[in-house]
Specification:
The chain is mainly α. A two-stranded antiparallel ribbon has the order 1-2. Strand 1 and strand 2 form a beta hairpin.
Length: 167
């Protein structure tokens, strides 16, 4: 986009006559187009404004509201676009991360429920195992005296030793 002297003056915060005087003194590069109108490249305008601000007694020109007026250069515009792109990418990644975070939270809730159910089942199995072990560890009550039968003897009942446990 090229600037006319009037638009350049508005951007720079000076009069059109100041811009034209700078063009005539070759301080501000400009050329005439096919319709014989002066046109100024944005980079040339930005450089001219920067040089002019360095030479002026006031370091920065201020507009009517007291806000410094800085003419954007193509590099500034490019940097601003890059920053906007980066910001949009960061926002997209943030939204995706938040969605992933919600999914993970839901998965954690489900896993906690499964873990509680597994613990309850394991606890029930342990109760059953301990009940069985306790029942096996109890001594059995004998009914009557212990009697050594012939088939229980080591020698098969061949000697004349009588069973001491029989009444």
């Amino acid at each position: 986009m090229m600037f006319s002297p009037a638009k350049a003056a508005t951007k720079a915060g000076v009069s059109r006559k100041t811009v034209m005087n700078s063009i005539k003194s070759l301080e501000l590069p400009a050329h005439r187009n096919n319709q014989n109108h002066w046109v100024i490249r944005p980079i040339d305008l930005a450089n001219w404004i920067r040089e002019r601000d360095k030479r002026s007694p006031k370091a920065l020109r201020e507009n009517a509201r007291g806000i410094p007026h800085l003419a954007p250069t193509p590099q500034h515009e490019l940097d601003a676009l890059k920053a906007q792109l980066q910001l949009s990418f960061v926002k997209q990644r943030l939204e995706a991360s938040e969605q992933d975070n919600e999914k993970l939270k839901q998965e954690v809730v489900e896993l906690k429920a499964e873990l509680k159910e597994s613990r309850d089942q394991l606890s029930q199995v342990w109760r059953e195992v301990t009940d069985k072990l306790v029942s096996l560890a109890r001594p059995h009550k004998r009914r009557g005296p212990f009697v050594l039968t012939e088939d229980m003897r080591a020698d098969g009942g061949k000697d004349n030793i009588t069973n001491l446990f029989i009444d």
